[in-house]
Amino acid sequence: MSAAEQMRAMLDQLMGTSRDGESKLSVRFTDPKVCKSFLLGCCPNEILASTRMDLGTCSRIHDVALRADYESAIKEKDYFYDIDAMEHLQSFIQDCDRKTELAKRRLAETQDELSAEVAAKANKVHELAEQIGKKLARAEELGADGLVEESMKLMEEVEDIRKQKALAEQEYRNSMPASSYQQQKLRVCEVCSAYLGIHDNDRRLADHFGGKLHLGFIKIRENLAELRKTVEERREERRKAREAELNERRRGSRDRDRSRSRERRRRSRSRDWERDRDRDRDRDRSSRRRSRSRSRDRDRDRRRYRDRSSERRRDRSRDRDRDRDRRRRRDSRDRDRERDRRSERRSASASNGRGDSASRD
């Protein structure tokens, strides 16, 4: 890993996914695909990496930036991921314990069975060897940290245990034939399932008990034991929190439903109002149209009436004119007849006058 990549990883671990502003990751730490054990720093895949029992890449997402986001978020909200982590570790340890029991049965099948007395002596040698290995590993760790005095005290304890082990080995050797004693008696480490021999030297034991594999299993088992202490209480708290969250969601849903219902009623009233307004407008337009139509009808009737009246007046005027013309013609004929009669009378009178004058002559 380059220096730039190391610096980027350190920044992710300290500041999370949003160290450059808004998060650009599509996955949040709450996603089911994210390993909750990793967020709490106890994923077996991470702890046992690069050991004889390396589990490979975890099936879930490991990202130090997501862990930083989680550590920041739990200050405001409890996500109860410790329960998920406990269930994960418990399943892993149960599987390892099954493998340990299987390894013990295989050893029992392949090694000569010892009597109860000899087996007890062999177990005592194993226990003392385990104490030596653990104390040597611890002493080396303290010496590396600069705690020389504490390391020297442990080394003194180791020397005492070595003496006890030598006596136990002598008793074990005397309790069985020399040929059988030379055979390597194995047992399975109860912590990490590794095989340990009764004739393993101190260096081999220190390497085992101070090794990453054994210490990793110790860490996993300690994390599991710590999480188990409060798991029932935490489950009850999670149940109550989920119930409260569900009730809150229901209240929110009811509030949203009431809000939607009010909004629907408001929209319905608005639509009704708009519909009534449109209906009133249509009614007004229809009324205006009817009014204009009636007005046009009245105007048309008035025009018709005026036209008829005018026509009647014209007819009466024509009738009067015809009557007047008729009277004039009649009067003119009467005058003509009267003139003709007068003329005839004068002619007749003149003729009679001439006749009378001739008769007198």
Task: Give a structural overview.
Helices cover 77% and strands 2% of the residues. With 361 residues, it is mostly helical. α6 crosses α9. The chain is rod-shaped, with a radius of gyration of 63 Å. The N and C termini lie far apart (186 Å). The relative contact order is 0.06.
Distance between the termini: 186 Å
Strand tally = 2
What is the percent of helical residues? over 70%
**pLDDT below 50 for ≥5 consecutive residues: which ranges?**
none
Q: How do the strands line up in the largest sheet?
A: 1-2
DSSP strand content: under 5%
Mean pLDDT: 79
Search tags:
361 residues, mainly alpha, two-stranded antiparallel ribbon
Q: In short, what is this structure?
A:
The protein is mainly alpha-helical and 361 residues long. The protein is built from eleven helices and two strands.
Q: Topology, pairings included?
A:
Layout: H1 3-15, H2 36-39, H3 44-47, H4 64-73, H5 81-110, H6 116-144, H7 148-174, H8 178-182, E1 186-188, E2 195-197, H9 202-209, H10 212-229, H11 231-360
Antiparallel strand pairs: 1-2
Helix pairs in contact: 1-4, 5-10, 6-7, 6-9
